[in-house]
Amino acid sequence: MSAHCKIGVDGGGTKTECILLNAEGVIIAQHLAPGCNPSQIGPASARAILAEALDALLLKAKAEHAPLIVTSTLLCMAGNRTFWRETADGLTNFGVITTCDDSLPVLELATHGAPGLVLHAGTGSFIAARAPDGSVHYAGGLGWKLGDPSSGYDLGRRAIALAMLELQNSPLAAGLKYSPLVTALQAHTGLTTASAHSLFFYNDSAANAQIAAFAPMVIELATQDCGPAQQVLADSLTDLARQADAVIHRLFPQPFTKLPCGVSGRILNSAPASFALRSLASKLNWPVELQFITTAPIEGVRRMLLAGR
């Protein structure tokens, strides 16, 4: 006898995580694949990664379980919504396929279906909110070309620009030392001058990845009280806070006390970022209770599948 099951996918810029639930809601198979954001790797590669991940998930499940019938699939994906809807329409044998933004699983973890919002910053950044009437709203997430404040790319870009300005000013000529931010950038790229960095970042095909990959070092330096790194983090977080402030005032105009506000992603959960975000929330008088989320988004996908959302 065939067993009915459901598939959930969290497809982001860093990884694509898939789960298979049986009729009782228990995870019976999981699969992890590379990131599939079409804005980063292109549409053809994004489609291929998703298709291969789904096939690998079913292959794992069928090796240990009776024949399976997939009744529904939930795709929570980063990137263009129309692209993923069209991609889903081309898939067969995966039941009723629902597509949504990858922000919704994180929102689920933050609010459990109640009114509230979530701020997320990792590879990309976004703000998602569930209004008192149950409607879901989305802000940010424009991608690296148009600006994702507090994302890995945004932190890296700001820090590299600041370090290059310092290199242009040549403090060594005045007998001064470069800041730790400059030293870290030189170690990261293997380049020493502002002109060499400019040539690389504007001409090399690997430049974007190098920019985003510099973000962890910026956070580490901010933790070590490096002034320039702390300034970069503060500026980037302030831009994200402005987006969040607009969402809060638009969707929650009536007085709220302790409105759930999830904080998600490795950047916002870092010590210097969480400290700065608490300060900004207090300064802006947000009627929220910040909840720092470390649970993986795929758990939010699982909960959405069980709740039928």
CATH superfamily of the largest domain: ATPase, nucleotide binding domain
* N-to-C CA distance: 28 Å
What is the H/E string?
EEEHHEHEHEEEHHHHHHEHEH
In DSSP terms, counting alpha (H) and pi (I) runs of 4 or more, how many helices?
12
Count up the domains: 2
Average residue pLDDT? 91
Commentary on this structure:
The protein has 309 residues and is of the alpha/beta class. It has two domains: 3-101, Nucleotidyltransferase, domain 5 (2-Layer Sandwich); 104-294, Nucleotidyltransferase, domain 5. It contains twelve helices and ten strands. A five-stranded mixed β-sheet has the order 3-2-1-4-5, sandwiched between helices. It has a five-stranded mixed β-sheet with strand order 8-7-6-9-10, with helices on both faces. A hairpin with a 3-residue loop joins strand 6 (116-121) and strand 7. The mean pLDDT is 91.
Structural descriptors:
2 domains; 309 residues; globular; Nucleotidyltransferase, domain 5; five-stranded mixed beta sheet
Give me the secondary-structure topology.
Elements: E1 3-11, E2 15-21, E3 27-34, H1 38-41, H2 43-64, E4 68-77, H3 81-89, E5 96-101, H4 103-111, E6 116-121, E7 125-130, E8 136-140, H5 152-169, H6 180-189, H7 194-203, H8 207-213, H9 215-223, H10 227-251, E9 259-264, H11 271-283, E10 288-293, H12 297-307
Parallel strand pairs: 1-4, 4-5, 6-9, 9-10
Antiparallel strand pairs: 1-2, 2-3, 6-7, 7-8
What does this entry show, briefly?
By secondary structure, the chain is α/β, with parallel strands linked by helices.
